[in-house]
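Q: Please design a sequence for this.
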């Protein structure tokens, strides 16, 4: 599930299907994943974008568990994404 190469291109388009996959069962996950998509995805490396796409395929409870630091070990790119998600303001 690759996305077009856009490393370093701040104008890189976010695929509509990916935006749709960021819509989750809870408003909190909607905000976190949508926040990543808007703030970081267009500037992310190809590997990080692919890791984010894989993350959006996880069930909601697994994402929450990973955000709480209680999930299984993840690759470096996914760990960076989870760290970014944890740093987003919660309001």
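A: Design:
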């Amino acid at each position: 599930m690759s996305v077009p190469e856009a490393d370093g291109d701040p104008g890189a388009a976010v695929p509509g299907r990916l935006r749709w996959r960021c819509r989750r069962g809870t408003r909190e996950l909607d905000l976190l994943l949508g926040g990543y998509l808007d703030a970081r995805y267009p500037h992310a490396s190809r590997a990080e974008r692919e890791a984010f796409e894989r993350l959006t395929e996880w069930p909601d409870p697994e994402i929450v568990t990973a955000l709480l630091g209680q999930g299984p070990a993840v690759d470096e790119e996914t760990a960076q994404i989870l760290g970014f998600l944890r740093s987003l303001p919660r309001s």
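Q: Thanks. Anything notable?
A: The domain at 16-87 is CATH 1.10.150.250 (DNA polymerase; domain 1). Confidence is low (pLDDT under 50) at residues 1-7.
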